[in-house]
Design a protein that fits this description.
The protein is mainly alpha-helical. The chain contains 14 helices and five strands. The protein binds adenosine-5'-tetraphosphate.
Length: 339
Amino acid sequence: MKTRVFSGIQPTGIPHLGNYLGAIAQWEKLQQDHDCHFCLVDLHAITMPWTADILRENILQSAACLLACGIEPGKLYVQSSLHAHARLGWIFNCVVRLGWLNRMTQFKDKAGKNREKHSAGLYIYPSLMAADILAFKANRIPVGDDQRQHIELANDIAQKFNFDLGQPYKEKTGKEFFPTIEALIPPQAARVMSLRDGTKKMSKSDPSDQSRILLTDSADAIATKIKKAKTDPLPLPDNLEALADRPEAKNLLSLYNVLEGKNSLENTLNQFSGKGFGAFKSALADLMVEKLAPISKKTQEFLSDKEELRKVLKQGSDEAKKIADPIVTEAEALAGLGF
Ligand code: AQP
């Protein structure tokens, strides 16, 4: 049996380069020889203020972009079309401990000083994410580095469920009900940083458009964003140690390195060491345009037929239901639910 892979992305706008290098590029490779299910997590998207029409449009745009990145029809669906997520999510809300949720750094970062004003959904988001994964009993989760802590929490929730409620299943089968989950975090570009601040991750929710490269950005937009990207006055160094306290330079060099398909930052450093940022940025923008232009073009093609896009998402949902519905029904029975 093929190993099962699950991952999701919030349909909160067109995916950016961080989403692509941290997650989507891995998805595209894994689908060749794994049982893959990729999800547009609209239930997560509504944990921050939202508008229904914009959300609907973002779902189609994100779907078109993911298909343009090579995700195959039948493997992509919308989270809210599968009730298994919310059903298991509620059970997990009752399994997860408040102390565990209090440790989640992403909530602290997003809620900031205004935590009282944020939705309860934002706070319990990680337990829904655990349900997203475990509704499939998936055990390989390709994600960026920012999701590491949430995957650890999903394992804690799975273990507590197994221990508190899964004993009858274990006695019958000799196995734990939920498997152990492994995050697949890419060796490079696991955390692509903002173009405006090398200490913050590139994110769809950053208020500045200039902080991220969208996969559908035009050549001009890419050139302008890279030209304006924050840097420092020093020339590019010739060794990795000298990048330690230069986060913006390190981020841009890493992007060049990974887009060029090299697996060592030293190669890129050798190519540009001693040069100023002007020449390097121009080479980086050209390379980005070369890699992203085909994705942008295909996204527009997919978007030109929204009926077809909806059909593709329905197909993905039908496939996902076949797996997740029986698992969640069994989890409910173990929890004494589902009379
Ligand atoms: N900067 C990044 N570098 C590498 N991987 C990243 N991911 C996100 N940002 C980076 C990975 O992309 C997948 C989808 O994540 P998401 O939709 O939660 O990402 P986002 O762009 O960060 O979206 P938002 O709306 O702005 O959400 P928050 O505020 O949560 O960051 C995940 O696998 C993620 O690791």
